[in-house]
Structure to design on (116 residues):
């Protein structure tokens, strides 16, 4: 059973920083690329960061490029998203996700709120 548990969200002022993490289990974590997606109220879910299984390749949405950094610790089956210079438009629920076979899995997500 694939399980993705995100944590570390919270409230932060504009310009602040936050690092969220995702503990993965139920699949061979070090063999799969991972993503961070987010969904703001009234908006569609969007992918913000991608990392290959070994971490050699990382891709970001234009809206977060230069501010967010995705990383992983395969020895601990954990995915991270370091967010800096946060903006109000980054307010969303953040989900880690993985595609295993033909199916996508998301965890319960963690809320990030950026406001003055």
């Amino acid at each position: 059973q694939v399980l993705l548990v995100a944590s570390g969200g919270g409230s932060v002022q504009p310009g602040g920083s936050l690092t969220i993490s995702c503990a993965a289990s139920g699949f061979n974590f070090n063999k799969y690329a991972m993503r961070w997606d987010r969904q703001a109220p009234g908006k569609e879910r969007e992918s913000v960061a991608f990392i290959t299984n070994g971490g050699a390749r990382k891709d970001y949405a234009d809206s977060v490029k230069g501010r967010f950094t995705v990383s992983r610790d395969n020895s601990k089956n954990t995915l991270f998203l370091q967010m800096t210079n946060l903006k109000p438009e980054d307010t969303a629920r953040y989900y880690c996700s993985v595609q295993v076979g033909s199916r996508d899995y998301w965890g319960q997500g963690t809320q990030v709120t950026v406001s003055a």
